[in-house]
Amino acid sequence: MPDREPFTPPDVPQPDFAGEAQSDGAELANQILEGEGPETREEQPQGEQPQP
Questions:
Q1: Closest CA to 39 of 31, 47, 48
Q2: I need a labelling partner for 33 at 20 to 30 A (CA). Which of 19, 25, 27, 40 fits?
Q3: Measured between alpha carbons, how far is 21 from 28 in angstroms, rounded to an integer?
Q4: Residue 51 in 3-state DSSP?
């Protein structure tokens, strides 16, 4: 039923991992916005980053 995908019935409790996933996603989003996320490091050219 496609009309049930965006809608979560109130009588169906969401699993705990759903909340954890949202928290992790928010943290990753903040890190990426600040340029501290691991994904941002991969996107940046290696030439800009000082390598030891």
A1: 31
A2: 19
A3: 10
A4: coil
